[in-house]
Target: histidine kinase
Amino acid sequence: MDADAQQEADGQGGPGDRVVVGLAGGSEGLELIRTGARLTGPAGTGRLHAVHIRTGQAAGELPNELDLQRALVADLGGTYHAIGSDDPAQALLDFARSVEAGQLVLGHSRRQGWPGVFRRSTAARLIRQAGGIELHLVPHGETPGPTPPRRRPNWLGRGRLVAGFALAVLLPAALQLLLRLWHHGHFATDMLVQLTGTIAVALVGGLWPALVAAVLSSLMVNFFAVQPVGSMDISDPENLLALLIFLAVAAAVSLVVGLSARRSREAAAAGAEAAALAELSRSTLAAQDSRGEFLERIREHFQAAGAGLYVRGDGRSGGWQLVQSAGAVAESAHANDNAEQLDEARMLALNGRPLTPRERRLFAAFGAHLLALLQRDQLRASQRNLLRLAEDNRMRTSILRAVSHDLRTPLAGIKLAVSSLRQDAVRLPPEDEAELLATIEDYTDRLDGLVGNLLDMSRLSAESVTPLVRPVYWSDAVADALRGLPAERLRVALEDNLPPVDADPGMLERVIANVVENGLKHSGGSDVVISASLGSAGSATVEGRPASELRITDHGPGVPAAKLAQMFKPFQRLGDTPAGSGIGLGLAVAQGFAEAMGGQLQAEQTPGGGLTMVIKLPLSAGSGMEAEPWPTS
Model:
């Protein structure tokens, strides 16, 4: 204890600070937990592990006391575990080694000379097998309840055990009856036949049924084949030696069969565990499981009633709250049969049955995988936030650049023209005044277009655009969009019999105007041709609906195929735009409006050079709904 006190004073963490407290379900458990918490030292939060070993019987367990013990462990920042095992000593040692604990705390009744929580043999085994784990026996005044006897696990299964005992009783008599019907009375033959039957019983039921069969078989051979026949006396010492060898061989074969069955079960369990871990590794690399699906996998693997994920409330001392579950779990994390704390703020619980020590190791691996899954989701969310912030920063930088250049240039031109007109010292000729007024009007129109695009882009970014869709003819929309544009460079080739499309008239006008203005800027002096059709070969569709296309074609320098998608991003200039001719929002706004109306805006390379913009909208169903156009700025 002096070393423990020194370690507590030093406050150093490590495997030695991890303390496992063994609980039997009695009222002494609170005292044991407090003792274990003191042994962890001042930095022991999360290093205290309270383990309740559940055996086949619940004698001596007090449910209310267990609830108090769970709450105390949670308040002390430790973790509570429930393990099902018929061997408490081995289960405690396995758990302590799995968490790399340096100390183990058990109860010791003052009214008995040996531990009252576990039997004398349990404490003695722990002392012998603890190895490097320091064992603390804490005295208390409680009289222990009756301890259930230790039962060795039946590796063959209950069905084979029952069948083995049935054969052990019936087979020796049946074999001896067959020998009597055969009128055979040789001692060696009878003994070999009965030995064969005993081996058969051993193969079916293991050690104990085989021992019963060996005893009954030896009695049969002694009574029916050993002189004097019909009596249990043995006159020849060699016959007695043969019967003893018969019993020894039967016992040895039974032990080998039991050991082989145990090894087979252990190998099968290890194989299942390895397969589960391999599946965990594969799903981790594939990143294919959601949180709910993974909880369902845990529940199905352990064949439990439910699995749940809990998070701690405000602060380190907050309670645990259920955030997601698969199946039936308790509202309180520690009220479940098994709980594995993943980190300071999250806990995985399994309800329905206590786990064995081997299953607890696999359960801990599932918990580690779930923690990695949660951390992966957090990283993805952080990545999305960072990308969103980077996009916002890029947008702000572009807006600042636009304000600093594209908006200031027209303002400077307007100010210069107004200053010239207001000069009193020099009277300008009428033609100069007209030119300055035209300059003011041109720069004002440019500012109005820039501000309008900025406002439209902000509406699209905020998803606050609600189109008022009604039937619209291409010819009407094109005529409204081309007002104010140089007609000498535009060629409109629209057929008269084209059906209407579903669109917002004001938004469609803005889409066409922006695309045509962009074509005029970059056509290199060539004409811009506007045509319409029912799509390529009459088969154009938008989201499964028949559609019509408006194609705006120029024969300028064009855009490389690799940059066709990039040109629709806000504030994009692909190097062929002279300074001061826009901030790169026209096509972005046009595409946003087209998609808001349920259509598409795409770019194609014009055969022979140039660029073709394709506005695709669904054909109208003929609703005839009238609505005011969406207001444009």
